[in-house]
Hints:
By secondary structure, the protein is α+β, with helices and mostly antiparallel strands. The protein has a single domain (2-250), classed as q2cbj1_9rhob like domain (Jelly Rolls), CATH 2.60.120. It contains 9 helices and 13 strands. It has helices at residues 29-32, 44-47, 72-85, 107-113, 116-126, 187-195, 257-260, 266-290, 298-320; strands at 41-43, 61-64, 67-68, 98-99, 130-132, 141-144, 154-157, 163-168, 180-183, 205-206, 215-219, 226-228, 238-246. Helix 8 (266-290) packs antiparallel against helix 9 (298-320). The protein is globular. The mean pLDDT is 96.
Amino acid sequence: MSQFDINLQRFPKSSPFGEHIEDDPVFDPARHLELTRPENLLTLSELGYGAEIDGTSPTDVAATSAFRILSDEGAELMLHVCQQLEAFTTSNARIAKNCRGGTYRSKFLRDFSLSLDVAEHLSSIMKTPLLPHGMGHQLSHLNYAPPEVGEDVDKWHYDTLQVDYVMFVTDPKKVVGGEFQYFLGTRDEMQALYESKQPLPAERVVVPEIPGPGFAVLMQGNYVVHQAKGLRDKGERITLVNGYNYADQSTPDYTALKQLVLADPENLATAEYIRHIALRCVSNLETAINEPGYKNDKAVQLQKLYDARRELDAGISQLEDSSVEEMKHFGN
Ligand SMILES: [Fe+2]
């Protein structure tokens, strides 16, 4: 009775793309991961956030210093994979050269992005359980140095999702410039500075020290305003941004779908977003399916259906809203 098997996939069985990279190594977590812990953590309150964001995040950890994710061998193979994915780069109003959806084109990249070893490690750093993002294009987004020396890789912005890390695929020590940096302040403070056309005070810009390829900075990307500088001399710079969802379903989802459709084809972003909402919905229903609350009050039992409906309503209302946004950023 296979129709009664519920077997949910963390990554979809189908792909929007036919083309794959040619030389795709096999990802082996035992050899390719080298998980270390960051020395420093910065909190949301240290950035200046307060009661106005209560209930939107299950953790106060905002950003970390750099820590290692890939071993030397893992980093070498990742570079090989990402160099092949350069053939699939696109650009948008914020980023001159990026590859999105590479997880559909490389099994190495997909298995790395979905690694539960990595997710568990990051969960312990963020002090809340994380799951690899349900949208394929929010996994292992890749940024490449723009063709013009000096042009910034990405403008000041905050992310379309809740948690991600920025990992250097290339060696930051072998190039001039190309720094990843973040703003010591809130989104509103950055907005005010941007509108006043004031230069950013240097003491409010943090440039984390990145020891080498395979090292990353983990952050709540929707609250930490950040940027990637351009190279000041010719060179290779590739970074990888992998996205995560909070497993804690009591935290409302944040997916800036109207921004995503400015980077990805609308039908593709819609399909992935619906998948993401469906996964959240099912997570709410899982206990009702597997462990019905026989002894619970009717109200407690009904809450599971309300929770699932809340997920659907939030997703549907975002999809039905036909307003159009511009790509948000705070310039260079
Ligand atoms: Fe970002």
